[in-house]
Amino acid sequence: MFDLLRRKTWAVIIPLCLLGVGFVAFTFFAPTIHVPQGGETPDAVLGERVPFLTVPEGFAATYFAKGVKGARVMEWDAAGRMLVSQTSEGLVSVLTDLDGDGTAEQTKVLIDGLDAPHGLAMRCHVNGCDLFVATRNALLRYPYESKTATVSEPEKLLDIVGDLTDRHKTRSIMFLGQPFENTLLISVGSSCDACHEEDDMRGRILAYDTRTGELSEYARGLRNAVFMTLDPMNGFVFMTEMGRRGLGDTTQP
After folding, report:
1. pTM for this entry
2. I need a labelling partner for 120 at 20 to 30 A (CA). Which of 36, 205, 210, 240 fits?
3. In this structure, how many other beta carbons lie within 10 angstroms of the beta carbon of residue 248?
4. In 3D, which of 47, 44, 177 has the Cα closest to residue 103?
């Protein structure tokens, strides 16, 4: 009986000791990663290198623009201007590199008064260009004039679920490649951290046909897929997925 208790005691003590040693080793010897805080960098100079970023040999990270508060998604227009959604500010702005030196000397507001604008997608055709903007609760299409960087009155294409208490309010969008170039993907996050069931829009990436208006499901089981990109060689869709959370201190790992 004594031997059994002793073995059980050591079975508890040894893992605790190993856990303690691992914690100490991680605390004192793990590499430190400095993540810059949000907001304006006081000493940022346009065109100069960003000192807190490390990039591979042969690459450089420099300051392109300043004062674009709440910048989230970037898109380019046909004239080479950068369009940026400023989600927290309710804006979409245009950044212009006037002299071609790789920095934006001019910033102007393109659209204001939006409810948490996030996703941007530009699509040009023989009659002009359209700017698609995904807000908290709508997909909007703006006729876009590339020569003057101006928009006309928008058309609401789709109502998206969302309310003022919604934690996952950002909607990422992206066009697929050929032969599905008219299909716009729309990511709609879950309503909570670990839901078992959601409605027909939540926790999914939706596929919207911009010609017919047909809406279908592209992928599901995604708590909050933010930002997407397309592999131009094979058409694969890549996205960042904010997985389940709030399940306890050890789950998810």
Report:
1. 0.80
2. 36
3. 7
4. 47
Residue 96 pairs in a beta bridge with 106
Q: Tokens standing for 69? A: 């508060």
Residues with Cβ < 8 Å from 2, sequence gap 6 or more? none
Instruction: Return the structure tokens found at 142.
Output: 């703006």
Q: Which residues contact 62 (CB under 8 A, 6 or more apart)?
A: 47, 48, 49, 50, 102, 103
> Rounded to the nearest 5°, which phi and psi values hold at 25?
-65, -45
And the tokens for 2?
């004594």
Over the stretch 196-213, which tens digit does the pLDDT of each residue have? 777 778 889 999 999 999
The 3-state DSSP class for residue 25 equals helix
Measured between alpha carbons, how far is 225 from 202 in angstroms, rounded to an integer? 11
d(CA 110, CA 108): 6
**What pLDDT band is residue 132 in, cutting at 50, 70 and 90?**
very high
Q: Mean pLDDT, to the nearest integer, of 237-245?
A: 87
For the segment 177-188, what is each residue's pLDDT rounded down to a tens digit?
989 999 999 999
136 within 8 A of 160, measured Cβ to Cβ: yes
The CA distance from 206 to 138, in Å, is 13
Q: What is the dihedral of CA 80, 83, 84, 90, to 10 degrees?
A: 170
